[in-house]
Design goal:
Blueprint: E1 2-6, E2 9-11, E3 17-24, E4 33-38, E5 45-50, E6 57-59, E7 67-72, E8 77-82, E9 91-99, E10 102-105, E11 109-113
Parallel strand pairs: 2-11
Antiparallel strand pairs: 1-3, 3-8, 4-5, 4-9, 5-6, 7-8, 9-10, 9-11
Length: about 120
């Protein structure tokens, strides 16, 4: 299993970023995908979950209404559109999958929100 995130960077408060995660090594379309984030000195926390066909999503209260998860099963990629970013959204963002009784992680992509 390989998960490769991209799209992070520096953005001003109120701005937007779109993260991508390219997946390989498993049958992507059959698995829920998750986005987590981890800020310095804090635990890694679940941000978003998207079901296999992308019909249903779930979000943490802190990002609900601002973040949108989506996926393209044709290219084995999951996305996280982040709008109205706040300084408290700054973190390393990870995509993740629970596959064969084990959770896999990407290497993460840094999101910095600062003016």
């Amino acid at each position: 299993v390989q998960l490769v995130e991209s799209g992070g960077g520096l953005v001003q408060p109120g701005g937007s970023l779109r993260l991508s995660c390219a997946a390989s090594g498993f049958t992507f379309k059959n698995y829920y995908m998750n986005w987590y984030r981890q800020a310095p000195g804090k635990e890694r926390r679940l941000v978003a979950t998207i079901t296999t066909a992308g019909i249903s999503t779930d979000y943490s209260d802190s990002v609900k209404g601002r973040f949108t998860a989506s996926r393209d099963n044709a290219v084995n990629t999951v996305y996280l559109q982040m709008n109205s970013l706040k300084p408290e959204d700054a973190a390393v963002y990870y995509c993740s999958v629970f596959y064969r009784s084990r959770r896999y992680w990407g290497q993460g992509t840094q999101v910095t929100v600062s003016s």
